[in-house]
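Recall the central idea of this unit: under ordinary conditions, the amino acid sequence of a chain determines the structure it adopts. In this exercise we apply that idea directly, starting from the sequence alone.
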Amino acid sequence: MLHILFRNKWKIIFFSLLGVGVAAYLYRTIVPPYESTAELMVKYVVDSSVTTPGAPGDGVEVRSPSDRGGDGVMNTEMEILTSWDLARSVAEKLGPDRILGPGTGTNVLAAAAQIKRSLSPVAPRRGNIMEVTYSNPRADAVAPILDAIIQRYLEVHIQVHRSLGNFDALQRETDTMRQNLRDAQNELSKLKSSLGITTIADAKKELSAQMQAAETAITETMADIAQRQARLDALQHAAASQSAGSPATNSVALLAPVDERTLEQYRLVSERLAFYRRHELELIGQFTPEHPAVKQVQEDIASAEKQKHDLEVANPALLQTALATSGKSGGPIARSGTDLSLETAELIGSQARLSTYTNQLASLKGQLVKLQESENQVTDLERRVAQLESAYTTSDSNLQRARFNAALDPNNMPNITVVQTPSAPVRDNLMRYKICGGAIAAGLALGLGLAFVRELVFDQSVRNPMEIETRMQLPMFMSIPLLSDRHPVRLLTNGSGKKSKDAEPRPERAPWEVSHFIRPYSDALRDRLIMYFQLKNIHHKPKLVAVTSCSEGAGTTTLAASLAASLSETGDGKVLLVDMNVSRPEMHPFFRGNLASSLTDLFDAGAKPSHGQYDNLYLATGTERNGTVTPLVPSKFYEMLPRMRSSDFDYIIFDMPAVKQTSATVALSGFMDKVLLLVEPGKTNRESVKRATQLMRQQHADVAGVVNRLPASAMKWLQPDLA
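Accordingly, the structure predicted from this sequence is:
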């Protein structure tokens, strides 16, 4: 990153200065607007909505900014405050001239846009104080406009949180529900009146009780009729026996006599019983059996019958005694007749009562059947009335709440308080500082962006030796800096260099000369190469070393020639320099006209290679026959490899062409003891180096990197290699 910044420092400095210049221009030309600030305290928010019948709750929700999730309350209020509708309503109320200035026309939308753009509410986290700031170029308009914004905000707050819809629609809905409820209640009342009931449950309970009482009375009456029928039969039999003088008269005399007190008591009970029964007949014709008077007389009849029955059981001769004693005054026949008439009347009365009870029970059963038939209709009406009552209550509650909210004064809202009214207008220099700072930051960002885009996107070349070792996993042998002689010379190339027509001819200097600037680095490379072979236990002869690159003009020919010359000076043996660049017909420039042999001619029997300036340096071309340009194929090279191994050369240096799809460098690299791959920083592509290394390693080649023409960096502490 530091290399990128330093290499592009002038771009970054230029655009940064350009940003500073633009910022200075903007600072002098921008006139900051005036701003005013107000503060609102939002204590709580009441959300009320129209409730539906049967829904839980009353439709009112109270939320506070201090509650959990209270940030949403303040965010909602700020959204209301900065809404377009609010800004437009304020612009329509004040007018565009007051907001935008005199002579700006009647563009309400532009005025609303200015309000929305210049209004900035801020609320702290977990707080209930909202700070509202508004800016405007006119000092006399800032505070009034902000005050109008706050007033309109309070009105909109009520409409949003407490509005229950259209007031007239709620009124019509409530009136309709009230009328429907009245109609249903009238219909239910008419139905109950026709049935003679108040509620179904009470009516059924009352009918059940009356039917039970009637059944009980029928049972008791039937028993009383049977009792009276038996007594009447006994009286008739006694009267018949007395008139005929039958032995029954004698049997009466045999019974124990009844005293006068008991006889008088029996007579009084009989008369009271007869009175009660006559009275019961009168009451039954007027009241129902459940009437208290009827029940009371029935209780008196039962009590009198029990007393009479008890007297008859305790005194069996009571009837005969009564007949005998009554004969003294009126005769037995007359007294018996009176008793028979009384008993007959009582029997008839009991039978009439039984008939009444039976008719009453039948009537009660008819009423129960009619009630059961109308029960579903009554229940449906009652349910409908209950539903209409609930709907009417809810609608009326919504209507009352809407009336309250409509009458609520925005200036006296209990939940929102204006803590600070709009302040006096002051200049908003912060906006000018932000714009100027943004211009400076934009210039710096533009410079940095261009630098990084150029270095990371467009320029994919290798930058330094450390990158080759770390990112490409290619071991480094040496880094040759970008140097030149004090006297200009023409460097040797592998034939790809182009000569300018206008360029003046310069003296040629061979790489093997001691005064050539590359010789110290060639000597250092020679020493490292010899030490490398010794450490790797490579002692066979000759040792094959190839020098290649990923692009044309990387300096492979210069480095190969200089390395061959340096190795030939050691005196250990002969060194052969092989030019594998057969794509051009001319020989190496440093051959000085000496005819070089081809590899096939060199390693044939009796062949004598050409040599260069030094005695131990020999030259050859990578062709099959002398004088031809036919390249040496890998199979032919493999056939000559045994003759190379048996030759008297100590080193054979191959000047290989650049690694390409059409070159034989990759195929021949597997025969070499060491392959030196020249990389030129700033020109050689990273992917090319990585691909070339992978291809040669697939041929089991031992590849090492040599950085050529490494530019000197002003940041010496960032230079990864030794000087």
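The chain has 22 helices and 16 strands.
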